[in-house]
């Protein structure tokens, strides 16, 4: 039994050596695999468009867009194993599970494949770096900027959050409050919680408009809340008086933008994310940059990503959606 | 007659609702204005309709925890049909919603009636099943405002004699229930089955069938509410009305409908729902810290229930005493 394991280990080591030499023998196209959570999802299709755009800019890059048909970690492991067999140069994965993928990705790294995670991260031992679509600071700054941009004279705004214990929303609101001194004419009059329930969020938005008749904007950094608030504003006949903004998905907010209840809102742009991911994977795979804390890795037109102590980086502030681009994105995600 | 009404639980609850409204008025001027109260009633309409359905079930000593899931599933189905075929008239969608709700209610009822499974287990099961089916048919995707047709969203909002159609539907259902519960054999059978199932059998009432009918009626109302909910909030997704089943049970319990079955009135269920509705609408405007809101809602429920429990007990004693005197 023991000899058998030794033999197996020796064989796999041999295979690994063969694998790496074979990879070197490849033609000079850098093959980057974009592994997504599942195929047929508009968000990832859009990310692929961005990746192809980056590939075209760089020139010698081939994008392999792949993923399981359903959002499971097992499916992704299978895909990753087959990519290892194909000896791709880099794997960029949006993980269905942060831990389950680690062994397969470790194997890929041992074979000399560059592994990064994007959108939905992998545990640090299973990747060289992770690219988040945005950071807490940038989201907090964006949501107040969206409201303030529509209020050049200043005004009263209120925040409609998820639950009072939602970690993400609380951090974003905290980050928003840190930059409030840049907007001296904007008053945040209240923060209320819709618990990510459509009916409670609707009622809270109604309550805000009753309590603060001069309210100018509602900031809802949650996808359920922003839709419910837009509906409450429309039903109260206050379109044009109260602007609803925050974080939402274009497919869910298209109606609110069309009716004018929401002038603009934000969320990450999947096209930019796929684009930036491709640049990072390319720069790391071709050894033009090293993934280590403090390193700056180029992302083409998106600038460069600065890695933190966990080798994580944020791409940019959330992308702004309004009447000019909502039709393009509402069918995407 | 008046003296009897003044001592009834409904009168006390009505006084509590009025006191609550006045209390909120002191913190937020304009809350007690007729137009705002009409808004509160409209907001509570769906809760009232579901509370009446739940009341029929609870009267027969059963409970239906699947109402909110039933609502969510019918809501998702009608929203999906509307999104893919905007030409289907709203009235047909409403009929479909009620029909689907009835079928889901019957499914609960059959399991309770023919297989004799405890209702709490049956409906706990169907609660998850119906919720799961929503995910299966929708793939987790939302149906959003811009995908719904104008008529689909406009119907419950349309004004008729100063009140939205949604409110009128609730009033209509309340009227139907007053007749059903007070003036029909089935309505009286609900009380008989819940009050004393064994005695009910001797009077020729089928306990199982009566329960089946209660589940069917509750299911049909939940189906109707499915359409109303989705069109009112103009969005349908998997978690629509999550946890709402507990609000419905709370409304019934506050309204003095005994969980042990056989005791309760239509007025009680309506007032119980209104009591919760006033609290839900008052908390956002009363300037109370959100961190206290949950505690206040919960405390209100416990106080109301404690009050009811006391009421029920003393009533029991009175009956015994009068029985002793009669002998």
UniProtKB/TrEMBL annotation, chain A:
GO terms for cellular component: outer membrane-bounded periplasmic space. It is found in: Periplasm. GO terms for molecular function: carbohydrate binding. GO terms for biological process: rhamnose transmembrane transport. Keywords: Signal. Residues 1-25 form the signal peptide. NCBIfam families: RhaS (TIGR02637). PANTHER family: ABC-TYPE SUGAR TRANSPORT SYSTEM PERIPLASMIC COMPONENT-LIKE PROTEIN, D-XYLOSE-BINDING PERIPLASMIC PROTEIN. This is Rhamnose-binding protein. It comes from Tranquillimonas alkanivorans. The lineage of its organism: Bacteria, Pseudomonadati, Pseudomonadota, Alphaproteobacteria, Rhodobacterales.
UniProtKB/TrEMBL annotation, chain B:
One of its GO terms (cellular component) is plasma membrane. Keywords: Cell membrane, Membrane, Transmembrane, Transmembrane helix. This is Rhamnose ABC transporter membrane protein. One of its GO terms (molecular function) is transmembrane transporter activity. It is found in: Cell membrane. The keyword Membrane applies. Pfam families: BPD_transp_2. The chain crosses the membrane at residues 39-60, 67-85, 91-113, 120-143, 163-182, 189-209, 215-236, 248-279, 291-309. It is a multi-pass membrane protein. InterPro entries: ABC_transp_permease (IPR001851).
């Amino acid at each position: 039994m023991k000899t058998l394991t030794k033999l197996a280990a020796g064989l796999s080591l041999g295979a690994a050596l063969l694998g790496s030499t074979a990879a070197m023998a490849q033609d000079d196209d850098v093959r980057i695999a974009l592994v997504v959570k599942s195929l047929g999802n508009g968000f990832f299709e859009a990310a692929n468009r961005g990746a192809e755009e980056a590939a075209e800019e760089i020139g010698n890059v081939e994008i392999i867009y792949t993923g399981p048909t359903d959002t499971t970690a097992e499916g992704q492991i299978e895909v990753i194993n087959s990519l290892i067999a194909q000896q791709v140069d880099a794997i960029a994965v949006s993980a269905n599970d942060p831990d389950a993928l680690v062994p397969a990705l470790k194997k890929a790294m041992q074979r000399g494949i560059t592994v990064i995670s994007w959108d939905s991260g992998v545990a640090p031992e299973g990747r060289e770096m992770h690219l988040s679509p945005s950071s807490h600071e940038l989201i907090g700054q964006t949501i107040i900027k969206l409201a303030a941009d529509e209020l050049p004279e200043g005004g009263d705004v209120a925040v409609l959050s998820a639950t009072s214990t939602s970690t993400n929303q609380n951090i974003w609101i905290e980050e928003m409050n840190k930059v409030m001194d840049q907007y001296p004419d904007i008053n945040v009059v209240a923060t209320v919680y819709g618990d990510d329930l459509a009916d409670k969020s609707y009622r809270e938005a109604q309550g805000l408009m009753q309590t603060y008749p001069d309210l100018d904007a509602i900031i809802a950094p949650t996808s359920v809340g922003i839709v419910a608030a837009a509906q409450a504003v429309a039903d109260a006949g206050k379109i044009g008086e109260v602007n609803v903004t925050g974080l939402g998905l274009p497919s869910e907010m298209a109606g609110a933008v069309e009716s004018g209840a929401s002038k603009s809102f934000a969320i990450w742009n999947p096209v930019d994310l796929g684009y930036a991911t491709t640049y990072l994977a390319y720069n790391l795979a071709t050894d033009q940059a090293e993934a280590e804390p403090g390193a700056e890795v180029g992302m083409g037109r998106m600038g460069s990503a600065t890695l933190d102590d966990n080798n994580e980086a944020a791409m940019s502030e959330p992308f702004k959606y309004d009447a000019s681009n909502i039709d393009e994105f509402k069918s995407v995600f | 007659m008046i003296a009897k009404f003044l001592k009834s639980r409904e009168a006390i609850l009505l006084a509590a609702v009025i006191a609550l409204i006045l209390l909120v008025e002191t913190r937020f001027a304009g809350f007690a204005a007729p137009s705002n109260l009409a808004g509160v009633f409209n907001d509570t309409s769906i809760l009232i309709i579901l509370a009446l359905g739940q009341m029929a079930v609870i009267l027969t000593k059963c409970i239906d925890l699947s109402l909110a899931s039933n609502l969510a599933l019918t809501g998702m189905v009608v929203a999906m049909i509307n999104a893919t075929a905007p030409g289907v008239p709203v009235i047909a969608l409403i009929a479909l919603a009620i029909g689907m709700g009835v079928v889901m209610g019957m499914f609960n009822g059959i399991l309770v009636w023919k297989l004799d499974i405890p209702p709490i287990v049956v409906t706990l099961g169907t609660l998850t099943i119906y919720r799961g089916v929503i995910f299966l048919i929708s793939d987790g995707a939302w149906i959003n405002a811009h995908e719904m047709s104008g008529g689909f969203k406009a119907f419950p909002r349309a004004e008729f004699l100063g009140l939205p159609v949604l409110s009128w539907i609730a009033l209509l259902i309340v009227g139907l229930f007053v007749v059903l519960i007070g003036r029909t054999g089935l309505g009286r059978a609900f009380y008989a089955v819940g009050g004393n199932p064994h005695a009910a059998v001797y009077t020729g009432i089928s306990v199982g069938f009566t329960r089946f009918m209660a589940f069917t009626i509750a299911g049909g109302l939940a189906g109707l509410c499915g359409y109303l909910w989705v069109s009112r909030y103009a969005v349908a997704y998997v978690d629509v009305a999550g946890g709402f089943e507990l609000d419905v049970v709370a409304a019934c319990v506050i309204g003095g409908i005994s969980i042990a079955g056989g005791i309760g009135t239509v007025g009680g269920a309506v007032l119980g729902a209104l009591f919760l509705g006033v609290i839900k609408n008052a908390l956002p405007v009363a300037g109370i810290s959100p961190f206290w809101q949950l505690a206040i809602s919960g405390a209100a429920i416990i106080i109301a229930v404690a009050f009811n429990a006391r009421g029920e007990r003393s009533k029991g004693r009175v009956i015994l005493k009068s029985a002793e005197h009669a002998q």
